[in-house]
Specification:
- The protein is an alpha/beta fold.
- The chain has 2 domains: 33-107 and 217-319, Periplasmic binding protein-like II (D-Maltodextrin-Binding Protein, domain 2), CATH 3.40.190.10; 110-200, 3-Layer(aba) Sandwich (D-Maltodextrin-Binding Protein, domain 2).
- Helices cover 46% and strands 18% of the residues.
- It is built from 14 helices and 11 strands.
- It has helices at 3-28, 42-49, 65-73, 84-93, 136-146, 165-170, 183-189, 213-218, 220-238, 242-252, 256-263, 271-278, 285-298, 315-319; strands spanning 31-35, 57-61, 79-83, 97-106, 110-114, 128-131, 156-159, 176-180, 193-197, 206-212, 266-268.
- It has a 6-stranded mixed β-sheet with strand order 2-1-3-10-4-11, with helices on both faces.
- Strand 6, helix 5 (136-146) and strand 7 form a beta-alpha-beta unit.
- Helix 2 (42-49) packs across helix 9 (220-238) and helix 2 (42-49) crosses helix 10.
- The chain is globular and about 55 Å long.
Length: 322
Amino acid sequence: MRVLPSLLCRLALCCLIVLCAGCGAAADAPLRLGTNIWLGFEPFYVARKQNQLPPSVRLVEYASGAEVLSAFRNRSIDLAAVTLDEAISLAEHDPSLRVGLVLDYSNGADALVARPDIRQLVDLKGRSVGVESFGVGAYLLGRALQRVGLSPRDVHMVPLPLDTHEAAFSRGQVDAVVTFYPVLARLREQGGQVLFDSRAMPGEIVDVLVFREDTARRRTPALVALGQAWFTAVKQIQQRDPVAMAAMVQRQKISPAALEQALGLLRLQDLKQNQLALGQASLALGPVMGNLGLSMRELGLVNRPLQPMNHLDSCIVEGLAG
């Protein structure tokens, strides 16, 4: 009469062991980091090429920033490399969003490019402009048009994923496009006229690494290891390591000369700069994020005010402080 209860207890114990093993496997699964094809994210891929990317992180590359945002919202990825304005858009609907690294500042690497016969921003009125409507392109276009008293409503915005920018411009499907390297380099070679670029808005086009609060809490060592890999790769690029440079030329599909020019329009951020931006002693990114949020509200890109200090996380920079 005692056989059945004993058997049930054993079965329950086996099920519990299996469940616990599954929980442990999920906890140890590699963090999925989503990026699009952008020079400022190349240190992650240089780290992978040099076997410096920790096994606790797996890179997932998407064709556009919009796809990265969608994947993060849907939790298909755990981490995302995005622009700061995109991070603010995510934070509007996700209070758990955290910014954990500042990756780079664009200093001319993002631009509004028009056909050769269009020479001034004001000439875009009534014209078609290709843009990733849910990414940094919409923000840069809005800031550019502000300069001449126009708004996005004064142009015909054509939603274009990044991987279609070059073809749409070359075929005359749009009069202008908001794009960035490496596409920007190729459009300029075709005679594209740069009407506005990120040099006119210093400090506003910033790329960051984002994740959620629970990821920071559960996977701090993995995040710290990723940060170390990033900073090592940044140093290699700054020193023009031949392997790193060759890897970027191959992945970005641009010439060594174009790569060198592009790197001059980009400021990759090291550990010291991140400690200033995100370290508890300064949190200098907070005011930058707050001012950017205000500009986005003026452009109608977000609806609610942002509390930037609620979205900054120092676990990576503090973990590397020693």
